[in-house]
Amino acid sequence: MSAVPHDVLVRALDAYAAFYETLTPASLARLADHVTPDVHFRDPFNDVRGIDRLRRILEHMFSVTDDSRFVVTDRAFGADAAYVRWRYTFRPKGAAGAPWEIVGLSELSFGADGRVISHIDHWDAAGQFYERIPVLGALLRLARRRVAAP
Fold first, then answer.
1. Residue 94 or residue 119, greater confidence
2. In a 3-state reduction of DSSP, which class is residue 77?
């Protein structure tokens, strides 16, 4: 990333963040404008390479959720990556009640053309997702209480 001029990185990060904040099933057609064909994407559920696999993950996300929305709340640049903190809200498909919320951080590496070559998501899947699932959530909360400092 360090070989890419800072002003190019700022514009690329702004464009990528805006793309995610307005992400819809229809806007996935513009994914190639923002990521390289061999993009590496990793989150707590997936670890894939290639734009087609990333597109399938995002399509799947839309197929199992309603009201999906990302909001970028902060951004920073390091020596080798850019970072965005985000909040993702959604409702599991067909579920009533308050939306679920996941807060995380994405570590992004950009190529010389300003497109993302690596998108690594960091977030607490146990605390923000699995603990909301009946039975599994109760077991995880019990385990968390047992290993937490008194």
1. 119
2. strand
